[in-house]
Amino acid sequence: MRIFFNNIIFFVNILKDRQIIITSDGSKSIYIPKWEETYHSRHGAITEAYHVFIEMGLKKCIQKELKIAEIGLGTGLNCLITFLENKQLNKKISYTAYEAFPITEVEANKLNYMEVLQAEKYQSIYERIHQSDWGKPVSLDENFSLLKKKEKFQDINDQSCFHLIYFDAFAPRVQPELWTLEIMQKMYKALVPNGIFVTYSAKGSVRRNLQEAGFEVKKLPGPPGKREMLFARKK
Ligand SMILES: C[S@@+](CC[C@H](N)C(=O)[O-])C[C@H]1O[C@@H](n2cnc3c(N)ncnc32)[C@H](O)[C@@H]1O
């Protein structure tokens, strides 16, 4: 119990000096000075999110009814663009977002995604992503339901639940404990057979942990500023 609380206090201290930054495509992100780590690529937050999670993840799924898990809701950008993209795809999406250390409403209000995406008419959707209660599913529209779970990734124990996982934890450099074989085994278990796992990282140790967990792993071209990213499928 004591270790758990020490861990939380450690993390809250790390996150407390978060700053809003502007990335190369004009979209904003959050920077953690103590870790020299950002929530998204400095080469473009929206550009990276579209490439890794929409182009290489969502668009590779053929199911009409899709269950997606996001590992690290953070700014809500991935959830927002999945919702917007689904206006064209017209799937029935159930989106489960895990996050243990949510950003504040003040921070969310400083981000400029609606403006950069020219999606101002969906402003209320972005607000609901942040304001909806934890643990209670909400319908963002007739095709998209969101369930936010305030849980540590280490505690995820879902089995055969998801068709697609967006794995968007902080980099292995700062949080190696979230990229271990044990976590990748949890991700494997959480997916249905043939389920897809995508992440921006292409690190060799992550690829090997995914393979050891049972995934078939491919390197795909990465977003601007990154040569490669990882795409994995549950065998
Ligand atoms: C790279 S950021 C997420 C980026 C997010 N997908 C976005 O678009 O803004 C990683 C997220 O993981 C959360 N996080 C870090 N460690 C965690 C843990 N052990 N359990 C749950 N959430 C964690 C952080 O609070 C942060 O929001």
Q: What do you see in this structure?
A:
The chain has 235 residues and is of the alpha/beta class. The chain has a single domain (44-234), classed as Vaccinia Virus protein VP39 (Rossmann fold), CATH 3.40.50. Helix content is 33%, strand content 27%. It is built from eight helices and eleven strands. It has helices at 2-15, 45-55, 77-89, 105-110, 113-116, 123-131, 181-190, 204-213, and strands at residues 19-22, 28-32, 37-38, 65-71, 92-98, 138-141, 144-149, 162-167, 191-199, 215-221, 228-234. An eight-stranded mixed beta sheet has the order 6-7-5-4-8-9-11-10, sandwiched between helices. Strand 2 (28-32) and strand 3 form a beta hairpin. Helix 2 crosses helix 3 and helix 7 packs across helix 8 (204-213). The structure holds S-adenosylmethionine. S-adenosylmethionine (SAM) binds next to helix 3.
